[in-house]
Amino acid sequence: MKWMIGGCVALALFVGFGAARSEGEKKEPGVRLYPELAATVKARIGEFEQISAERKAQLKEIATFIRDAREKQQPIRMTFICTHNSRRSHLAHLWATVAAAHYGIEKFEGFSGGTEATAFNPRAVAAIRRAGFVVKSDESAKNPRYEVRIGPDAPAIACFSKVYSEGGNPGKDFCAVMVCGQADASCPIVSGATARIALPYDDPKVSDGTAAESATYDERCAQIAREMLYAMSIVK
Questions:
Q1: Nearest 5°: phi and psi at 52?
Q2: What is the pLDDT of residues 29-85, one digit of tens each?
Q3: Is the dihedral of CA 37, 129, 127, 31 positive or negative?
Q4: Given 26, 109, 122, 142, which residue has the most CB atoms within 10 angstroms?
C-alpha cells in the first residue's frame, strides 16, 4: 500500500471507528505517537474551551465533510491551502493527520499546498519539532523536502512547498481548507474540490526576526493543533 499525503507523503490511517463519543474521548489510536507529541496532544485537548463558538462552527464543517465522505465509503481527502505553502498549511496538514490518528478517523488522507510555491519555513519546522514531531531533511535545497514522523511505527510524511494542484495532491473529491485570508480571497473556487471551508489563521511570519519569534510560532502551532483535534473529536 502506498502512503501518499498530498505534497506531504502518506498517511492514510486505516484504523477503526467506534461509537459516538464526547469531546476529547477517543478509541485506541492506530498509530502510536511519540511520547512528547502525545503529551502535546493531551495538553491541547485540555484547551478546547479556548476555542470560540464562531471557530467551533467553522470546525464543525470539517467534521461534516468527514462524516459525509465516510457515509459514501470514500477516502477522506483534505487539502490545506495557504498562499506560499510555507507555514500554516503545513501545520494544519500535520496536525490534522495527528488528530485523525488520535481519534481513529478511518481512511484519512491529508495534503497541503499553496497558490504559489516557496519552501516550508524553517521557523515552522522548528515549532513542530518543539511540539514533538520528528523531522529529518537535507535543508540545503532551496525548497527542502522534509520527512516528518508522528510515531516510531508511522510512515514518513514528506513535506515540501508546492502549488495545491501539484505535488501528488488530489485533483478531485477532496475538501479544500483555506487557512489564510489571502488564499481564501484569491481562490474563491478550488478546481476539483467537493467542499471548500474558510478557516483562516494569523500568519506567524509577523514575528520573524524578533524576540517573540519562537513564542509566536509555538502559539500558532498550538492553536492549529487544538482546532484540528477539536474538529476530529466531534466526528460521530
A1: -70, 160
A2: 468 999 999 999 999 999 999 999 999 999 999 999 999 999 999 999 999 999 999
A3: negative
A4: 109
Q: Please count the other Cβ atoms lying within 10 Å of the Cβ belonging to residue 74.
A: 13
CA pair distance 30, 176, nearest whole angstrom: 25
In angstroms, the CA 129 to CA 149 distance is 10
Domain spanning 38-233 has what CATH number?
3.40.50.2300
CB count within 10 Å of CB 195 equals 17
Q: Where are the domains of the chain?
A: 38-233
Hey, what amino acid is at 133?
Answer: F
Q: What is the mean pLDDT of the chain?
A: 87
pLDDT of residue 16: 34
Structure confidence at residue 6 (pLDDT): 39
Task: Measure the CA–CA gap between 217 and 126, rounded to whole angstroms.
Answer: 9
Q: What is the pLDDT of residue 204?
A: 97
Burial of 150 (0-12, 13-18, 19+ CB in 10 A): buried
Point out which residues pair with 149 in neighbouring strands.
Answer: 134
